[in-house]
Design goal:
It contains 4 helices and 5 strands, in the order E-E-H-E-H-E-E-H-H. By secondary structure, it is an alpha+beta fold.
């Protein structure tokens, strides 16, 4: 599932007894990671295979370190980016409650960070804004990969403390 197509980071609840497609594995956090063969002549992905592996590792580590499910969407966010990002998060089903979605549309210059109802206690708006600022600093330099990586690290750092009570 190439990131450029906006498919990386999508998750579904998994029947652990059901067979997975070839190249798929359920990570300890419950996320399904699918390896796909990359065509070296394909030009629509902004990332190298090594960069994709590092992004997958960053998502896995952020999820493991915080107990939240981090997801990344890269693609068009339509005419109403917040609503589209909310719909993407909702596709996670029950897992959306404890999830963080980082949705980025480079073409539209849009970043949406959406948290589920339980996740917002760990990653409030202030922490999400720090993640956005971190990403924007790299994006302005033309570094999409670096921005996503540093943004994921910042979001995980912000969410790794004790849950905040209202």
């Amino acid at each position: 599932m190439p990131v450029a197509a906006g498919e990386h980071g999508t998750s579904t609840e998994v029947d652990r007894l059901a067979p997975l497609e070839p190249g798929a594995v359920v990570t300890p956090s419950g996320r399904v990671s699918v390896a796909t063969e990359l065509d070296p002549d394909r030009r629509d992905s902004p990332f190298t295979p090594a960069q994709l592996a590092r992004l997958d590792e960053a998502l896995t580590m952020a999820s493991r370190d915080t107990g939240l499910r981090f997801n990344l969407y890269l693609g068009d966010l339509g005419s109403d980016p917040p609503a589209v990002a909310q719909r993407i998060l909702a596709r996670l089903g029950a897992a959306a409650e404890n999830s963080v979605l980082v949705a980025v549309s480079p073409e539209q210059r849009q970043i949406e960070i959406i948290t589920g109802h339980e996740a917002v206690a760990r990653l409030p708006d202030r922490g999400a804004k720090l993640g956005v600022m971190t990403m924007v600093a790299s994006f302005k330099k033309g570094d999409l990969f670096g921005g996503l990586l540093s943004g994921l690290h910042m979001l995980a750092d912000q969410a790794s403390g004790r849950p905040r009570r209202s």
